[in-house]
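#structure-requests
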Amino acid sequence: MPRTCPTFFSFPADAPAQSAEAAAVISGLMSEAPSVSPKYLYGPLGSRLFDAITELPEYYPTRTERGLLEACRDSVARAAGPAPTLIDLGAGNCEKARSLFDALKPGQYVAVDISVDFLRHTLSQLQRDFPELEMLGIGADFSSGLRLPDAVRRDNRLFFYPGSSIGNFTPEQALTFLAGIRAQCAGAYGGGLLIGVDLIKPATLLQAAYDDALGVTAAFNLNLLNNLNALIGSNFAMGDWRHVALFNASASRIEMHLEARRDIEVRWPGGARSFRQGQRIHTENSYKYALADFKSLLTQAGFGRIQAWTDANDWFALCHATL
């Protein structure tokens, strides 16, 4: 029977968890080297700003990965097997997964994203375009572990993690995350992972991708302050801060920071923090890998068979890993 609305699950934090989340943010802000999790870059406005970033000429990852998905989709479909349960992690606007529907012919599509309202809107539109495909939406933060409802089919799960988002984790965190995905592939029904990985390339290309001429990435980074204000009741003002992106060659990662334009004091209920002019809050890492190193990471996580496809410039890789 054709469907016009997807089934939707949401796992919002309960009050104690929300309190712990706010406490963790404040702890990060109060540390000697202030930092905030990159998950706070998102939300309804942040998700739309990120969509805009993916269309910028400097931002090569999305168009390079899109080209790879188009070129390799039949190979991916053969590797994935019949009627997979396609679990789209960080689904965003769902466009990357949508591009695979014709080739994969999934038995079920499961979209997971932290931005609940944005996901609900985009998935409802997608269901109208594909009324015969069973769709589930899951509004959740999966950065510290993935919780799937019983409605998600267990047969032939294909976890799809595009966009090089694995780079937001440290290599140690990435290993833990990948091992968790591998555990959810285990069992009688098999399964696998299709993941996008940004590869090492000249620093000039990397830095431009995270500091575009139009300032869209700067707006995306600065919007994090609005999200913090909503979460902890702080009084961050965007005009007091500027966006900084740099390539840390020794760690093989792009870093994003917010830098104080002047000496300021930021307050929230029960606390405050002074920032000196030029002091930074670290908001995101994006690690870049050599392909051999990322394959090794997948092997350490427990995956046995790994296929990889790269673009002509070796800028980006798609990896399919099974047990």
